[in-house]
Amino acid sequence: MLLHVRRSLIITVIFFASLGLMYPLTETAIGQAFFNHQSNGSLTQFGSILVGQKWAGPKWFQGRPDPYNPMSTGGSNLGPRSQALVNDVAKQIKILKNEGIAPTSGLVTTSGSGIDPDISPAAAYAQVDAVAKARGLPVAKVRQLVTNHISGAQFGFLGSPYVNVLLLNEGLSTLK
Amino acid sequence: MSFAWTLTALVIVLAIIWRFLGKYMASVYEGRVRWASFIERPLYRLLGVDPESEQSWQRYATALVVFSGIAILFTYLMLRLQGYLPFNPQHLPGVTPALAWNTAVSFVTNTNWQSYSGETTMSYLSQMGVLAVQNFVSASVGIAVAVALIRGFSRKGSRTIGNFWVDLVRGILYILLPVSFLAAIVFMAQGALQTLAGPAHIHDVLNGVSQTIPRGPVASQEVIKQFGTNGGGFFNANGADPFENPTGLTNFLSIVLILSIPVALTYTFGKMVGSIRQGVAILTAMTIIFGCWLAIGAIAEHQANPAVTAAGLTHQTSGNMVGKEVRFGDTSSVLYNIASTQTSTGSVNSANDSYNPMGGFATMTGMMLGEVSPGGVGSGLYTILLFAIIAVFIGGLMVGRTPEYLGKKIQASEVKLATLGALVMPITVLILTAVAVSLHSGQVGPLNKGPHGFSEILYTFTSVTNNNGSAFAGINSNTAFYNILESVGFILGRFAIIIPTLALAGTLGAKNVVPASLGTFRTDKPIFVGLLIGVILIVGALTFFPAVSLGPIVEQLTTKKFF
Amino acid sequence: MSDVGSSHSIKQESKPKAQPGTPVMEKQSRGLFDRDILRQAAIDAVKKFDPRMQIKNPVMFVVLIGTVITLLESAANPSVFSWSVTVWLALTVLFANFAEAVAEGRGKAQADALRRMRSDTEARRLLPDGTEQKVAAAELAKGDLVICEAGDIIPSDGEITEGIASVDESAITGESAPVIRESGGDRSAVTGGTKVLSDRIVVRITSERGHTFLDRMINLVEGAQRQKTPNEIALTILLAALTIIFLPVVVVLKPFAHFAGADVSVVVQIALLVCLIPTTIGALLSAIGIAGMDRLVQRNVLAMSGRAVEAAGDVQTLLLDKTGTITLGNRMASAFLPVDGHSEEELAGVAQLASLADETPEGRSIVVLAKERFDIRERKLGAEHVFVPFSAQTRMSGINLDGREIRKGATEAIKHWVALQGGDPSVDLDHLAEQVAMSGATPLAVADGPQLLGIIELKDVVKQGIRERFAQMRTLGIRTVMITGDNPLTAAAIAQEAGVDDYLAEATPEAKMALIKAEQEGGKLVAMTGDGTNDAPALAQADVGVAMNSGTTAAKEAGNMVDLDSNPTKLIEVVEIGKQLLITRGALTTFSIANDVAKYFAIIPALFVATYPQLKALNIMRLHSPQTAILSAVIFNALIIVALIPLALRGVRFRPSGASAILRRNLLIYGVGGILAPFLFIKIIDLVITALHAY
C-alpha cells in the first residue's frame, strides 16, 4: 500500500512536469513560431475573426442574436418547448422585419458558443437589400460582396458554407 | 449531400485507424514497442517497478485506486492553490472547495463534467498543468483496464493480469502523447489558440464594440480532451467555441480523435485474443448502435425547432439552429455530439439542451446504454464486454451448454461481476436523479420548466455517472449540492465498474480454455452481434424507459404546449 | 476385452437389451398431468407460501412481499382495483408454488412406488460360527453376511462372496430377463430389492440402512437432496440482479412523478415491479431442474447430482465402449474355421446342429450362415434329441442327438469337455482361437463328443443407425471415441464402419485414464460408460461417468450416474437431456425478459397519462383504461406461469443441430415471440376485463 502511494506520488510529479509543462510549452513554442497569427487569437485590426461582435443593423451586416461576450461563452440552453425561447425568437423576428430583413433560422436563434462569428450565405443575402438601402449602395455591389465572402465547406464537404461577419463588414466599410 | 461525404470520409479514416492503431496498441501492451525505452527504463527505475513482473488483479486494482486517489488529491490542491501559482495572467483566485472537489474527481474519472466556465475560473497552469494532465492519465487508466480484461480472456491459468504502472506509462508514452502532439499542430494551423499571453483587449472602431478576448494554451489541451474521450473544454462553450474548434476540418478531426481509440481497441481485442473476427463482431454491434442513434439525432435536428416555428418562422431552410454554429451546420453538429455522448467524451460543439426532443433523446439515451458504442477509451470496450458476457450467458444456455466466451466458461462469479458492472450505472443514475428531484436544492437547478427541466436533471446524473461530462447545460450545477452529489456519480460510475472488471480479468485469466466446437455458441457471427445489441438495448430500455418517458418522450409527444 | 472368449459373457451379451426409454416402473409411469399429482400439488402450493421456503427464491420472495404490501394498502384504502391487483399477485406466487409442487409431485409418486418395493424382507444372516439367524432386513449392518436362495429377495446392497445365481432385477431395471451374478470379478454386485431365481449365494452387505441404492434412488426422485447446479446458481444471480435493478426503477417513479406534478400509488408501483422482475423464469426455475432429473429417471438413468446432468450437456468427448454401444453385443457368425483336417462343411453341419435349439441371436446367426454357405437346411429334430441349455457352470450349450453329444462354447470350456470325453484337446485350437480374437472377433469352439471340429468366428456387427447418431453428435460438437480391446486394425475397421471420430485400440484401464486426462487438460469435458472394477478410476475421473447397473459396486460408486438398463448407448440421450435442461432455462429466461417490453407499453402510459395526456400515444395496445391496462399486465404475468408449466416440465424441443441453428430457432421463438406474444394476450385480457364491466 505504502509502495503504491510512493509510486503514485513520484509518477504524479513526473506527469505534471512532462505532460503538464513540457508538452504544452513545446506546442506553444511551435505555435508561436509557425502559426503566430492563429495561436494568438486570429486578431485583425478590428477584432478576432473567430469571435463575433454585435453589429447594429441595417447599416452593418449583423450576425446571430448572440450575447457576444467572449469571457462568458455558451448557448442559451433553452429547450425546444421553452416559452422563453418562443418569446426571444419572436422578438428577434420582429426586429429583423422592422429592419426590412426576411428572418432566417440562423438570424433569429442564438448559437452554441454565444460568439458565433459566422452567418449562413442565405442569412447574408437576406440582409443585402436592407444594407444597400441603409448605406445607399447599389444592391448588386453589396450582393457581390457577400458572394465574395462566402467560405465553402472545407474540402467541399466538411461543415457548412458560411460568411464571416467581421470580414464581410470590413469589406463593406471599404465599399464605395 | 455533404453529410454523406462526411460520413463516408469518417468511415474510411476510422477503418484505417482501426487496422493500424489497433494493431499498434496490441504491440504496445504486449511490450513489443520499444522506441521510447530510453524514457521508459529510467522511469521504471525511479518508480522501483520491474516492467517484466506482473500483478494479480487485486494488486492491479489497488495500485489503480491508490494512484487515482493521489491524483484527485493533487488536482484538488493545485486548484485550491491556483492563486499562488504561476501561469495565471488573469490573477484568478483559488477554486472554491466544493467546485475544486467536483472538478478534481470529474477529471480523474475521465468525466470532465464542468461546473465552471474555464475562461473565468481556471488559470493556465490549472488548465494545462493540472486538468489536461488528467486527460492523459485518466485515458491511459481506462485503456489499461480494458487491456487487463483482454488479457484475462487471452490467457489461461494465469494469476496475473499485467502491471498497472507499465500499462499506465505505455499508454501515454506510445499512444496518447505522440498523436496529441501531432494533432495539436493541425488544430493550431486551423486557428486554435496556443499562447501563454493573457486575454487580448480590442476595440472595433467600425461598430464601437470593445471586447476582451480570452486566450491560453488551448490546442494542446483540445486534442487530448478528444483523443482521451475526456471532453473538458478550455472554455465554457467547449467545442462550439471557435478558438477550440475553428473549422469544419477541426470539427471532423475532433470526431475522428474521439472515435479512434475506442474503435481501434476492438482490433486490439481481436488481435490479443487471437481472432480479429471477435473484434469485428464487437465493432459491428458498436457501429450499428452508433448508426441508429446518429440517425435518430440527425433526423431530429434536421427538423425545425418547434419553438422557432411557434415564434412565427414557419419556413426554415436549415434544421434546428438553436445552440448550433453556422460553420458546422445541423447534421455535422449532431455527428459530433453523438460521437461525444456515445463515447465518454462529453465535449459538445452545439448545445444539447437546445436540441429537438428526439435529438436530446439521442444524446441522453446514448449514454444510458452504458456508453458502449464505441464508448470511452477502454471503458467502452470493457463495458461492452460485460454486456457480451451477459449475452453469452443467455445465448449459451439457449444452445444447451454451460456458456463460454472466447473459451472461458461463464459461471456464477463471472455473471455476478458482469451484472454488477453493468447495473451500477443505471441504479446510480436513477437514485441520484431521484434525490435531486426530491430536494429543494436539486429542484432549483434546471433552467427550463416542464419536462425539459426534468430532462436537465436526468441528463446531469446520466452524464456524470457515465463519466461523460456533456450536459443539458441550462442546469445550474455549480452549487455545493450538485457538486457533491455529482461526485458520487463520478466515483461509482468509474470505480464500481473498474473494480468488478479487473476482478473479472482475474477470474477469467485463471480459467482454462474450452476448445471451440460445433456445439459452441459462436461469438463472431451475426447472431451474436444481434443478441449483444438486443441485450444492450433491452437492459437500457427496461431501466430507463419510465424516466425517459417523463423527459424527451413526453416533449416529443407534446404538440402545442410550451412551458 | 476381458470377457472375450468366455461363454459366460456370451450369455450376458445375448441378453435382450431393454429399449431406450423403457420406463422403470411401467405401472407408475404417468402423463404430464396426473390427477392425483395435481391435487396434491394444489395443496402443496398453498403450503409453500411459508416465507422460509420463499426466501430461497429471491424473485418470488419479492412478489410475496409485494403482495403483503398491496394487501395492507388494499385493506387501508379498499378499491376494486387494488383488491384485484392483490389477488392476482397472490395468485402469481401460488402459481409459482404450484409449478414447483407439480414437478416435485411427479418425483414423489415415483418415490412412493420405489418405497413399496423396499418391503421389509426377512434376511438370513450368516453368523461367524456358520449358523443362520433370521433378522429383519432393517437390522442388517454393513459387513454382515446373508444367505439368499432361489425365491429370496436380496435384503440390501451387497457383493456376492460365494456362489453364482441368476437374479431377477426387473424391480429396479424393468427388464424381465434374469442376469447372472457370481462371486469375484465384475458381476458380483447385487442390489437390495432384487430377487434370486436360482442357485444359492452368500452376500456381504455393503450399504448401511438408509444408504442403499434404493434409498438413494428414492432421495433422488424426490428431490430431497437437490442442490443447485452451477448454471442454476449463475442464472439465479442474473435473475437476482434483474430483480434488484427494477427496485430502484420502480421506487424512483414516485419522486419522478412528484416532480412532474403527478402521483403514483404504491399498489401500481408494486404491480409494475412484479411485472418487470423475471417472475416467469423465477417461478419455473426449480420446476425445470426437477423435471430434468425426472426425464433422466424416466429413461432409467439415475444421476447422483444435478451437476452431473448439466455436465452432460457440456460434454465434448464421448468415450464409448465398442461392445454393446457401437456394435450389437450379440455377435454374428461370420466364418467356420475347421481344425485337424475336418472340412469346413463338416464343421458347419455340426455347428448348425448344435445351434438348432439355440434361440439367441448368435445361435440363429450360425444356422443362417450354415445355410448361406453350404445350403444346410434346418432339420426337423426327431423325438430322440435332448437340448442342453447354457449354464453358468458349464459355459456351453449343445444337443444330444442320436447318441452324439454336440457342444459349442468358450474355447476353454470345450477343451475341458473334450478332455473329459477322452478326446485330445491339445490340437492347435488355441492358436486359431487367438487369431480370431486378434481380429476383433470371438471364437466359439465346436466339439462332437471327443472330437474337436473347429471354431466358429463370431464377428461384431455395427448397430443400425449408430452412424447417424454419431453424425448428430458431430453437429453438436461432440467427438466420439471408441474404446476397444481389439487390435488397431480391427478397431480401425469398426471405427470406420461406425463413423466414430477416433478410437482407442487395445485399451487398458491405464490407457483409458490417460486419454481422459489428456482431453480434460485440453479443456474438454469427457463422458464415458463403464461397468468393471477396473473402470472405476476412469469413471471417477470422467466428468460424466455412467456406470452400468450390471456392473460392480465399485464402478457404480465411482460414476456419477447409473444406467439401470445397462445400455451404454444411452450416454447419447443423457447428453441430450443435459442440453435440453439448459436450453429450457435459457429460453424461458429470454422469454421472461422479452415480455417486459410489452408490459412497459401497457403500464407506463397508464401511470402518467393523467399528467401528460400526450403519453396516450404510447398506449399502442389501445387498452381501455389505466386500471385495466395495469391489471391486464398483472394478470398476464400470473397466467403465463401456468401456461408455461407444461413446457417447463417437458423441456423445450431439442433437435440435435449446430449451435447457431439452435440459437436462431430459440431466439426467434422465445426472444421475438417473447416480445410480441404479451402484446396480443394483454390486449385480450384487457378486452375480457372491460367486457366484464369491472371498471
Which properties best describe this structure?
heterotrimer; A: 176 residues; mainly alpha; 2 domains; three-stranded antiparallel β-sheet; B: 563 residues; two-stranded antiparallel sheet; 20 helices; 2% strand
What's the short story on this structure?
Helices cover 52% and strands 4% of the residues of chain A. Chain A is mainly α and 176 residues long.
Strand order of the largest sheet of chain B: 1-2
Q: Could you tell me which chain pair has the largest interface and how many residues each side has? A: A-B, 98 and 127 residues
Q: Determine the N-to-C terminus distance of chain C.
A: 77 Å
Task: Pick out the low-confidence regions of chain B.
Answer: none
The end-to-end span of chain B amounts to: 36 Å
Radius of gyration of chain C: 32 Å
Number of helices of chain C: 25
Radius of gyration of chain B: 23 Å
| Shape annotation of chain B | globular
Question: Would you spell out the secondary-structure blueprint of this structure?
Answer:
The complex is a heterotrimer of chains A (176), B (563) and C (695).
Chain A: H1 2-34, H2 36-39, H3 83-98, H4 105-108, E1 118-119, H5 121-135, H6 139-148, E2 150-151, E3 162-164, H7 165-174
Antiparallel strand pairs in A: 1-3, 2-3
Helix pairs in contact in A: 5-6
Chain B: H1 2-29, H2 37-47, H3 57-80, H4 97-108, H5 118-121, H6 124-154, H7 164-190, E1 200-204, E2 209-213, H8 219-227, H9 248-273, H10 276-301, H11 306-310, H12 329-342, H13 357-368, H14 379-398, E3 404-405, E4 408-409, H15 412-438, H16 440-443, H17 451-465, H18 480-510, H19 526-550, H20 552-557
Chain C: H1 7-14, H2 35-47, H3 51-54, H4 58-76, H5 80-117, E1 122-126, E2 132-136, E3 145-149, E4 158-162, E5 164-168, H6 170-173, E6 179-182, E7 189-190, E8 195-196, E9 200-205, H7 213-222, H8 230-251, H9 253-259, H10 266-276, H11 279-298, E10 301-303, H12 306-314, E11 317-321, H13 322-326, E12 327-338, H14 344-355, H15 361-374, E13 386-388, E14 396-401, E15 404-409, H16 411-420, H17 429-438, E16 442-448, E17 451-462, H18 466-475, E18 479-483, H19 488-498, E19 502-504, H20 509-521, E20 526-530, H21 536-541, E21 544-548, H22 553-558, E22 561-563, H23 570-608, H24 626-650, H25 659-691
Parallel strand pairs in C: 11-18, 11-20, 18-19, 20-21, 21-22
Antiparallel strand pairs in C: 1-2, 1-3, 3-9, 4-7, 4-9, 5-6, 5-8, 10-22, 12-17, 13-14, 14-15, 15-16, 16-17
